[in-house]
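Narrative of accomplishments. A recurring question from our advisory board has been how the design workflow behaves on a single, concrete structure rather than in aggregate. To address it, we present the structure tokens for one chain from the evaluation set, followed by the sequence designed for it. No filtering or post-editing was applied between the two.
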């Protein structure tokens, strides 16, 4: 595994000790923003309590880097992309993980290998050894030739090294939902330190959320859907979810207002328009997930105000637990 220090060095940045890296000079879009307005998930011993507290603050915005925040210049879900993003602005990473034929977890959005590697076939029908031989960068640009598909443990190590938060989306193939979730939770329980806020685990597959709740109830879960489900409050309560993740393209103002008024932390994806991101956050949306970190941070501004629609109602399905990831 290439360390983040090495990856940042290759991009002209210098990483310091874990959790306190010196970043390269930010681009103009993010230079004017105070760090506390960018990412409420910060290193510290308070764990989940700190995470939930951050979600409830009225003047804190959360920007997550969708598949590492590649924008137009970097391949998705790649270590080079994470290094580029983190060297310019602190960001919560949003990644997709899937299981290989032999049950190992890798970063992969699609069921198949063709779009983001030079391989062919299903991820679930390919072993980790076979996947690690593939080129995951040349398809995007010759400059990224030789980039490999990261393992889940690779990326956890990078986040731990810099003390950054992570949103892990579990993308299982059919009939492997439980096994994929078990492997993901086991890795988090084994590797994630208690000194950092707990990662958020989200999935479109309810079985993944059920397994995560049973194996690690202190792990925050995000209910992930395209459109707002009719019984969204019941679904969140069923799996004891902390956050609700929705596709911003299908969310109208009325439904957005209802979720925010219920006090539920609302995360919208994939928001690549700066003005739209600003309006969502000002309306009380908790977080936006984006491909273009610099663009969104530049539009939000250092004095962005959130919560005009938020009530003091408790979050449906969310629970406050002590920090740590003990099962």
């Amino acid at each position: 595994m290439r360390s983040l220090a090495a990856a940042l060095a290759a991009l002209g940045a210098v990483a310091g000790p874990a959790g306190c890296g010196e970043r390269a000079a930010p681009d103009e879009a993010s230079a004017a923003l105070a760090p506390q307005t960018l990412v409420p998930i910060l290193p510290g011993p308070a764990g989940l309590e700190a995470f939930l507290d951050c979600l409830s603050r009225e003047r804190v915005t959360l920007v997550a880097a969708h598949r590492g925040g590649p924008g137009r210049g970097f391949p998705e879900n790649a270590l080079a992309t994470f290094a580029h993003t983190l060297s310019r602005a602190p960001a919560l990473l949003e990644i997709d993980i899937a299981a290989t034929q032999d049950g190992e977890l890798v970063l992969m959005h699609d069921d198949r290998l063709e779009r983001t590697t030079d391989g062919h076939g299903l991820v679930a029908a390919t072993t980790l050894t076979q996947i690690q031989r593939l080129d995951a960068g040349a398809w995007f640009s010759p400059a990224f030739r030789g980039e490999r598909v990261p393992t889940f443990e690779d990326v956890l190590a990078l986040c731990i090294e810099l003390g950054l938060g992570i949103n892990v989306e579990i993308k299982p193939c059919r009939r492997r939902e439980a096994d994929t979730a078990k492997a993901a939770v086991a890795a988090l329980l084994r590797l994630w330190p208690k000194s950092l806020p707990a990662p958020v685990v989200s999935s479109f597959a309810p079985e993944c959320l059920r397994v995560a709740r049973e194996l690690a109830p202190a792990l925050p879960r995000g209910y992930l859907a395209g459109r707002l489900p009719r019984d969204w409050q019941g679904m969140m309560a069923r799996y004891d979810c902390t956050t609700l993740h929705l596709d911003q393209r299908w969310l109208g103002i009325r439904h957005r207002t209802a979720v925010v008024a219920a006090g539920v932390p609302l995360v919208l994806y994939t928001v690549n328009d700066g003005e739209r991101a600003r309006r969502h956050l000002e309306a009380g949306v908790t977080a936006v997930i984006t491909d273009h970190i610099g663009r969104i941070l530049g539009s939000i501004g250092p004095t962005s105000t959130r919560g005009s629609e938020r009530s003091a109602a408790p979050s449906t399905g969310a629970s406050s637990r002590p920090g740590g990831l003990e099962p």
